[in-house]
Write a structure and sequence with these properties.
alpha+beta, 8-stranded antiparallel β-barrel, 48% strand, 2 helices, 2 domains, Lipocalin, globular, 10 strands, 178 residues
Length: 178
C-alpha cells in the first residue's frame, strides 16, 4: 500500500489515514510515558510502576550463577505476577510456579513488593516456596526501573533454606505496531 502510493507520486487517502494513525499512536504512547511519573497537579504518580516489564536479575559474583530474565506485571490494584527464566531445575529436580504478590508506593518514584512462588518436585508435590521482597525505583522517563531484592527459598513448613540479595533492572514492555 505505501509503496504504490509513493510510486505514483501522490499519497492515497488510505496512506494518509494510516500515517496519521501511526503518528497519533506514537504521540499517545509518548504522552502516557511522560505522564507516568507526574500527575497533572505535579505530585508523583503512585501508579508509575503499573505495566509489564522485562527484568534482568543479577546474582552476586560469588554465587557463580548467571543473570536470568523475568517477565513482571504490576497491576493497578496493587497486585503483581511474574515468570522467571529457568522455572524447571535439574539439580535438585524442581518446578517453580509463576510468582504472585503485592506492591505499594513508598515515595516519589520508589516502590516495594513481596512475591511468592510455589516449588514442587517433579511429581507435583509441594517442597517449598520462593519468597522475594524488593524495592524498585522507576527512572525519570518511566521506562526503566532498578533496585534490589532479597530472595529466600523456604521449605514446605516455611523454614529458610537459602537466601540471596540480587539486583534488578527492568525495561518497560512497549506497544509495537505490526
Amino acid at each position: 500500500m505505501f509503496h504504490s502510493a509513493h510510486t505514483h507520486g501522490r499519497l492515497s487517502a488510505a496512506t494518509i489515514i494510516a500515517t496519521m494513525a501511526l503518528t497519533a499512536s506514537f504521540v499517545v504512547a509518548g504522552a502516557s510515558t511522560v505522564g507516568a511519573l507526574v500527575s497533572t497537579d505535579g505530585t508523583p504518580n503512585k501508579k508509575a510502576l503499573v505495566g509489564s516489564w522485562l527484568e534482568t536479575v543479577t546474582f552476586p559474583p560469588e554465587s557463580g550463577r548467571p543473570p536470568l530474565k523475568s517477565l513482571v506485571s504490576f497491576h493497578d490494584d496493587g497486585t503483581m505476577a511474574c515468570s522467571d527464566q529457568g522455572a524447571v531445575t535439574t539439580e535438585p529436580p524442581a518446578v517453580f510456579t509463576s510468582c504472585h504478590g503485592v506492591w505499594t508506593h513508598l515515595e516519589q518514584r520508589t516502590f516495594a513488593y513481596t512475591s511468592l512462588g510455589l516449588i514442587s518436585d517433579l511429581s507435583g508435590n509441594l517442597v517449598g516456596y520462593l519468597k522475594v521482597r524488593g524495592v524498585y525505583t522507576v527512572s525519570q522517563s518511566g521506562n526503566e526501573y532498578s533496585g534490589t531484592s532479597f530472595a529466600q527459598i523456604l521449605d514446605a513448613d516455611g523454614n529458610v533454606l537459602f537466601s540471596v540479595d540480587v539486583t534488578n533492572a527492568g525495561q518497560r514492555i512497549q506497544v509495537e505496531l505490526p
